[in-house]
Amino acid sequence: MQEFVTLDDPSSGLSATFVPAAGMIGTSLSDDGVELLGQRKGLPAYLADHKTMGVPLLYPWANRLSGNRYRVGDTEVALVPGQGGVHTDEHGSPIHGTLAADPGWRVAEQSASELVAELDFGSRPDLLAGFPFPHLLRLAIRLADRTLTVRTTVTATGAQPVPLCFGFHPYLQLPGVPREEWLVETPTMRARLVDARGLPTGVLMPHPAAVELLDDTVFDDGFDEVAAGAVFAVSGGGRRIEVRFDQGFPAAQIYAPATEDVICFEPMAAPTDALRRGGYAVAPPGEPAAAQFSIRVS
């Protein structure tokens, strides 16, 4: 049985629920009983088939890779779909890393409004087969002042630096508000155009800050040059949900499919396919690397 950990904001009716034994996925962000996270097919589908919902962690890479092999310095890695947590999209591209629904998280601290959990990546031969960079992964989650803050810290435990290519996939919704009334706000950044497989083509375009109604617009777009502190938002029906890229997330994906009333502003530590193409930061031995995003409801 999965243990649900619910955090409460003592200053409001906001609550958030996470499941450490299911990959530390966030399953709920509720505002006085109104669910603000897209539930999609629910936690059972995430556990069984890696069908994302809520706020899943995408680790050690977010989005897709363009092939099953990558090289970091002198280390060459071959990914095997179906092994070590590797799963693929409909085109056969490895997607969203290897920690989906992973049960290996240990709760280190817990209170009414805070949850800290750790996963010792370096102790897991199954995970090291696909990402051979030993490290400790730590998530610190806090709910206060109508804001859910998620801080990720990567600490190398071996002699090699750890590539930082991870991300999160928050599915946001405005229940009771028609999609055509959802107002979407995005910051100044740079668009990275993708092909039919969702992989970057190499074509780059400026993306000025924008405010637009979602209506029937479909998004599945990648971006980089996202400034620290940049804010993405969706609002409607008297409620506004902001996703702030506080630090360590210079890339983003915006996802809003035609078939669902959800929108995702995905914080990413590196652009799509960076593990194969380069362009990522690292956590050197002795220097823990932290990244943080927050979701504010007003």
Automatic annotation (TrEMBL):
<dbReference type="InterPro" id="IPR011013">
    <property type="entry name" value="Gal_mutarotase_sf_dom"/>
</dbReference>
<dbReference type="Pfam" id="PF01263">
    <property type="entry name" value="Aldose_epim"/>
</dbReference>
<dbReference type="InterPro" id="IPR008183">
    <property type="entry name" value="Aldose_1/G6P_1-epimerase"/>
</dbReference>
<protein>
    <submittedName>
        <fullName>Aldose 1-epimerase</fullName>
    </submittedName>
</protein>
<dbReference type="InterPro" id="IPR014718">
    <property type="entry name" value="GH-type_carb-bd"/>
</dbReference>
